[in-house]
Specification:
By secondary structure, the chain is an alpha/beta fold. About 30% of the residues lie in helices and about 20% in strands.
Amino acid sequence: MLDTHVGWSDLRVLWHLLGKRVRGNSHTERLDSFYHGQARDYDSSRSRLLHGRQAMIDAIEVPEGGVWVDIGAGTGENAERLAHRRTRLKSLYLVDLCRPLLQVAEERIARDGWKNTSAVFSDGTKFVPPEGLADVVTFSYSLTMIPNWFCALEQAWSILQPGGVIGIVDFYVSRKHPDAGLKRHGWLTRNLVPTWFGNDNVHPSADHLPFLLNRFELSLLEEHTGTLPFVPFARVPYYIFKGRKPADSAVGRPSLRHFDN
């Protein structure tokens, strides 16, 4: 049954979603404008909207002594979801351009004593871990908020070790004529979902999955729909993707391959 209970936390978030104008000339300024005032309510409010995060995290084997980069990490929720498995890592970098969300992550790290975890204010399309390469790169409902999302994926490729893993969970819509084996969404979903979410600078794309399937070796792909809080009967599509950079790949940017539009 859909949870329609509204508390003070929900009201604060709804105000920022519906009543507050997002301002700023840069992506960082717009993120700060949008999340300032709701950062501390983020995890509780988004728990009923951002589906599949735990499933994506659980699908990834944590490499012993490895380096994990979480792009658009926000409050550090993914690090929390890793639980005891987090201690296997050498380094976990929580990368974000939103200061209000990152401050919550920093407080979380300090409070819980995560010695191998760092909150990093940086652009996910440019970030390189101090070690140079990563074993795992993840995006949890952040790819749809990165204007140049394809650059973020290219950067993920460039910092991944050959054989490294990428994990993504995010909103999306299908193409009008998706490739065989992929779900096809109706006209209303393909047009309404991007328009609805676009008001908050979230951009579900029909090109995420084709791009990922072109770049990475597929390990896991699940296509689902999830509920929207306070909107009875509404469902929004999301996907869980796990891929691998081919073991024989050179370090750095991939060569461009054919990519159908």
